[in-house]
Amino acid sequence: MQNHHLKEHLYKILVIGDLGVGKTSIIKRYVHQNFSANYRATIGVDFALKVLSLEHETVRLQLWDIAGQERFGNMTRVYYREAVGAFIVFDVTRPSTFEAVKKWKEDLDAKLNLSNGKRVTAVLLANKCDEGRDVLTNNGIRMEQFCQENGFVGCFETSAKENINIDEAAQCLVKHIIANEKDLLQSEVSDTISPQQETGRGGTCSMCFTS
């Protein structure tokens, strides 16, 4: 009997962002393929596990659903420990939640680095796109530029309700985490390559920057 050695990875992924932006809904949609309009506010932190098969490898994503008010607490340092990736979520219908994105990202980068000193892989989720795109359209935000300036590897307009771009965003995150891991293993100090510009995208942001 051949013994096929399957490689297993366990990645701790943070899901952060302001209260009510849909973090729990995104996780429930991704892990359990369902949606409810009335989840209660998460207290502290909640967990979910998603298992993926990629080629000959099993990837287990341990998703940490961190309560929106935790950015102001001291516990985030504990919650962030050993994470290798993060989704930062905002609600496209509420401008204040977009303004908070930078603060969440700064908090994350201040408290957590990979062993080679690089920033943790982060993907931006513009959630509730089924309800409108007020933040994006009214403010003419160039999401590609915002992501590059703030160190996101990609950004996606998502809807947990309509199941839009949740899987794609997760694929983008996992792809970059695996690439980062290979870099760490080879411990090469490679020059950072700036994300490829996509032209003519006019503010839409379903994209994964490939380095």
Could you walk me through the main structural features you see in this protein, from its secondary elements to its overall organization?
It is found in: Endomembrane system; Membrane. The small GTPases Rab are key regulators in vesicle trafficking. The chain is α/β, with parallel strands linked by helices and 211 residues long. 31% of the residues lie in helices and 25% in strands. It has six helices and seven strands, in the order βαββαβαβααβαβ. Helix 3 (95-111) links the parallel strand 4 (85-91) and strand 5. 36% of the residues are buried.
Strand order of the largest sheet: 2-3-1-4-5-6-7
Kindly give the count of domains: 1
Might you state the CATH topology name? Rossmann fold
Determine the strand fraction and express it as a percent band.
15-25%
Distance between the termini: 40 Å
Radius of gyration: 17 Å
**Poorly predicted tracts of residues:** 190-203
Q: What would you call the structural class?
A: alpha/beta
- What best-fitting shape do the alpha-carbon axes yield? globular
Number of helices: 6
CATH architecture: 3-Layer(aba) Sandwich
GO cellular component, one term: trans-Golgi network
Function: The small GTPases Rab are key regulators in vesicle trafficking.
GO biological process, one term: endosome to lysosome transport
Protein name: Ras-related protein Rab
Summarize the structure.
The protein is α/β, with parallel strands linked by helices. It is built from 6 helices and 7 strands; from the N terminus they run E-H-E-E-H-E-H-E-H-H-E-H-E.
